[in-house]
Design brief:
Structural class: alpha/beta
Radius of gyration: 13 Å
Strand content: 15-25%
Number of helices: 4
Largest sheet: 3 strands, parallel
Helix content: 25-40%
Number of domains: 1
Distance between the termini: 22 Å
Length: about 100
């Protein structure tokens, strides 16, 4: 059982969808009953290069917690570096590696 659930309710996860999920969409889904939020796919390369557009994909509101950042890439070391940067910036509840 995940630490943010301590009842018998089956949690409803919002799936990561590139080009669809932003802060506003996640807020609406949370209001409609989604339990766990996930950001759009975020490029590890974009995070390392400090690309502002890529960094924007990691943004979320505290009311959306628990929330994770979906990270993708081809190089494990760069993905680890990007995950550390994301944890420093926003402190998501989890990092979803793709």
């Amino acid at each position: 059982m995940l630490p943010w659930f301590n009842n018998d309710k089956f949690p409803l996860y919002l799936a990561p969808m590139a080009g669809v999920i932003d802060r506003i969409f996640r807020s609406i889904c949370k209001e409609l009953g989604a339990d766990v939020m996930v950001t759009e796919f975020v490029s590890s390369e974009g995070i390392i290069r400090r690309d502002d557009r890529t960094r924007k994909y990691t943004e979320f509101d505290d009311e959306q917690r628990p929330v994770g950042v979906q990270l993708f890439g081809a190089d494990g070391e760069k993905m680890a570096e990007a995950a550390k940067k994301i944890l420093d910036w926003k402190r998501p509840d989890f990092i979803d590696i793709n």
